[in-house]
Design brief:
alpha/beta; 6-stranded parallel beta sheet; 20 strands; 38% helix; binds thiamine diphosphate; binds magnesium ion
């Protein structure tokens, strides 16, 4: 005989789970005891929200769900932002929460929140386990649903009495590999015909192209067709940003230099676009034709309504599409000549010496200290636009940013997850002074886990992005500034190392030294945000779309 929690933990082991992140409560104590006897590591965090961000990032980087755990009510409610982060961002994750016993009610309604109802709009599936007999199938199904396209979070609630209930050893359900169907020939023929008829085709790589299973298929498609490409923020890195056909990243929805190419295209092959992202461009009735290539059909939006779709396993479907196109595309590179100018404009002021440094300079310097496989995880703030726009990626999933929920507070936990998964690679979290403080308590977790991690804090003593929007919309500058702790002492109080960058020239050596030394480092640098308005408003306002120019 075993008990419910033993069965749950055995079912998690059966799925290959290696670690669980979270903060247990008394309702999880049976599960904690079962974990103690298992191969699974329990990684305590200092807030449930970070546990969920870490588990979601595990899903994003590996394609296998990360697992997080909390108690009932208050703990479970702390997971909800992480659930939404994974749900909007399409990251496979399992959320396990406790609950009071369901067969008796000895504590009346103390701490009870209806978490099944709470999680319903935030997950792909949410279920209470009401009998030990269902644990093997519920767990297997949870992993299947979480990983299946479009991936996302699944919630399981295990009440205390079911966790502790004696049960015979029940057989587990073995996982099996999943092959997805490829797009049907009729859809491929239709798409090929449209592409062959286009005079100025363009490829867009969207969020779903970051799925770990897809990378090779994308590179092949780009190399075989030689159509220039750009990417959305979350599609960054899927084909190397240094590639001769890379035209840039759509960090804004319009007017940026990359839109020079988008506005001129007569056909966009939109691969893996997920409209959960802030629009990379705005479709209009007289604009380019759009072919949506995806695992799942496109959502139809006011700003995205594709004219044709190629739905199926994206890599193999693209190979079949390339078979129909290779060698027949006479105008494939029509837009490629725009590349030099777009990239030169974007790189403007990247090497300027002024102090505090410009965002462009910070992005440039971070790129210098990160090897090709180094991972930068961004929190949310003004600098995200600059990194999306200016940071060139050479490998998939090396710039982790959230352009879906776009929540503050995820930068440090997602960097920690990357550092756990890839201990040999350089990992840096880049955070604003606002977003960093939303989960800064995890510095303790990072130090305890002996991670190698550099956290770069961009200090403007403000919720800078909102302050900028306030100025752009002609509101009075009011109500969005704050004071900061002494970040160097703050790091030291956690047993991490702290450094303050006092000259622009010191940024690269300080970051390099931090990586060389290993361990957890916090580096703080002030940032000159006057560039936000100078470039993103004034300079781009004058960039008239080419259609209006002729
Ligand atoms: C959890 C959460 N709260 C509020 C916001 C709205 N918001 C977006 S950016 C931002 C300011 C971020 O400030 P900071 O982290 O200091 O970065 P900065 O823009 O100053 O570089 C705010 C409040 C959000 N996206 N997420
Ligand atoms: Mg700030």
């Amino acid at each position: 005989m075993t008990k419910g929690s033993d069965l749950l933990v055995a079912a998690l082991e059966n799925e290959g789970v290696e670690r669980i992140f979270g903060v247990p409560g008394e309702e999880n104590l049976d599960v904690v005891d079962s974990l103690r006897k298992s191969r699974i590591e329990l990684i305590l965090t200092r807030h449930e929200q970070s546990a969920a961000f870490m588990a979601a990032t595990h899903g994003r980087l590996t394609g296998r769900p990360g697992v997080c755990i909390s108690t009932l009510g208050p703990g479970a409610l702390n997971l909800v932002t992480g659930a939404a982060y994974a749900h909007l961002g399409a990251m496979p994750m399992i959320l396990l929460t406790g609950q009071k016993g369901i067969m008796t009610s000895r504590q009346a309604r103390f701490q009870i929140v209806d978490m099944i109802a709470t999680m319903r709009p935030l997950t792909k599936s949410t279920r209470q386990i009401v009998s030990t007999a269902t644990i093997p199938t519920f767990v297997r199904d949870a992993f299947r649903v979480a990983m299946e396209e479009r991936p996302g979070p699944v919630h399981l609630e295990l009440p205390e009495d079911i966790a502790g209930e004696e049960t015979p050893d029940l057989p587990l359900v073995p996982p099996h590999p999943i092959e997805l169907p490829v797009a049907p020939p009729a859809a491929l023929d239709r798409a090929a015909e449209m592409i062959l008829a286009a005079r100025r085709p363009l490829v867009m790589l969207g969020a779903a192209t970051s799925r770990p299973r897809l990378t090779a298929g994308l590179v092949d498609f780009v190399l075989r067709t030689r159509i220039p490409f750009f990417n959305t923020q979350m599609g960054k890195g899927t084909v190397a940003g240094g590639h001769k056909l890379y035209l840039g990243t759509a960090a804004l929805s319009e007017r940026d230099y990359v839109h020079e190419a988008i506005d001129r295209a007569d056909l966009i092959i939109s691969i893996g676009h997920d409209t959960i992202e802030k629009p990379p461009f705005l479709m209009a009735p007289n604009g380019p034709q759009v072919i949506h290539v995806g695992y799942v059909p496109a959502n139809v939006e006011q700003v995205y309504f594709p004219h044709a779709e190629v739905i199926g396993d994206v890599g193999p479907s693209l190979a079949l599409l390339a078979d129909r196109l290779e060698g027949k595309l006479r105008t494939a590179s029509a837009l490629a000549p725009l590349r030099e100018e777009i990239l030169a404009r974007i790189a403007d002021r990247a090497t300027e010496d002024r102090f505090p440094p410009t965002p462009q300079r910070i992005v440039f310097d971070v790129r210098r200290v990160m090897p090709a496989d180094g991972i930068v995880a961004l929190d949310n703030g003004m600098y995200k636009i600059w990194f999306a726009r200016n940071y060139r990626t050479w490998m998939p999933n090396t710039l982790l940013l959230d352009n879906a929920l776009a929540t503050m507070g995820a930068g440090l936990p997602s960097a920690m997850m990357a550092s756990i998964l890839y201990p040999q690679r350089r990992v840096m979290a880049v955070c604003g002074d606002g977003g960093f403080m939303m989960n800064s308590q995890e510095l303790e977790t990072a130090v305890r886990l002996k991670l190698n991690l550099v956290v770069l804090i961009l200090e403007d003593n403000a919720y800078g992005m909102i302050r900028w929007k306030q100025a752009v919309d002609d509101f009075t500058d009011w109500g969005l500034t704050f004071g900061n702790p002494d970040f160097v002492k703050y790091a030291e109080a956690y047993g991490a190392k702290g450094a303050r960058v006092a000259t622009t020239a010191a940024l690269v050596p300080t970051l390099d030294a931090a990586f060389e030394a290993g361990g957890v480092h916090l580096v703080t640098v002030p940032i000159d945000y006057s560039e936000n308005t100078r470039v993103l408003v004034d300079e781009l306002r004058d960039r008239v779309p080419p259609a209006a120019r002729v």
